[in-house]
Each structure stands twice: as structure tokens, then as C-alpha cells.
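The data are set out underneath:

___
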Amino acid sequence: MIEKNREDVRDAFFYNHLMTITNIESVERTAREIMERKLEGMQQIGPTTMLITKEGLDPALKIVYKLMKDEGLFDDLFAQLDQDELDFEIEYVSPMAQAQKYTGIQELQQLIEIAGILGGQLGYPVTDRLDGDFTLSLVADYLNVHAGVLRDMKVVKEERAAREQQQMQAAQVQQAGEFMNNAAPMVKAVSGATDNGMPALDMGGGMGGINPGV
């Protein structure tokens, strides 16, 4: 009876899953296989973990914050920020939480792949509905990348605008060069005809007017 109760408690707290995740490196496997096995095990208990955090830990932490605020423990911080309230989000950094974030990255990858496939089947691009900059920021958040890795969007937008302006100027120069190259044979032909005493076209205006040679 005692052993059965012990097993019931272990099952209720996902003991076997957690031990599998913890001891997975004891068996000889590749690093990629170890990561996939860990993610698989964490994702199995992910829904329960999310339920605990959303309905248990999050409210508890908010209550603790309110109690600390009422005791005046944040007065110095509020004075430095020149505000009376903190707008914050609770973020968990445990391996379990990281596994859940990794699941979000996989979902993003699937979305991008499906968008590419749909674009090919429908005959028009649908990936232009995706916000690449926001997606990159979201992935960086999922991976807990340091904030300094991604550059400030204001600077990036300014550089993009300058690069687009340079590309437009280069295209205009190229078009002007192509026009001159195409016009050169015509100018040469007209000049040669005039030198031979043949009438030349009136390039100054008129519809097909002829300027008789002298």
C-alpha cells in the first residue's frame, strides 16, 4: 500500500518524466538527440506547467508585489522612475519555461514554411503579411538573447531608407547610361547623313518635318 501511494504521488508530480529528462545524458547520445528528448519530455508536462504558472504562480507573485508596494519597498524605485506604478510582465527562465518558448519557435517556423507553400500554390506571395522585424524580436525573446544583440529599429529604418535612396539613384544613373548608349548610334547616323549633304531630320520639333540641307 505504501509503495502504491508513493507511485501515485510520483505520477501526480510527473516524477518519471522529470527523472527521464534529468538522466537522459547518462545514455550515450548525440547533443541534438539529447536536446530533442528533453524538449519532448518537457512538452508532455507543459500544459500542466502552464496551468500552474497562470493560475498559481502568477497571482501569487502579483500579491507579493502588492504587499511589498504597500510596505513602501518600491518607493525609491518609483521616485527614480517618476511614476507610481510598475507595468511589468512575469517571465520564467526555468528549463521548463525555455522548452515552452522553443515550442513557440517551432510554431513560427511552421507558419513561415506554410506561408511559402501557399504562395507557390496560390500564385501570389502571402509572406508579405509577415512582419519580419517583429518575428525576429519574438524569436530573440524566446531564446533569451541579450537585448544588445538586436540593433535599435530607428537606426535600422534610417539605414534602410538611405540604402533605398542610393539604389534609386544608381538605377537612375544606369537608365541614363543605357539611354545614351542607345541614342549614340542614332546621333552618329544623323551626323553622318548631314556631312554627306543629305537632308537631316528636324530634331527640334514638328511631326516629321524636314530641314533641307544647304
Notes: The first strand starts at residue 200 and ends at 201.
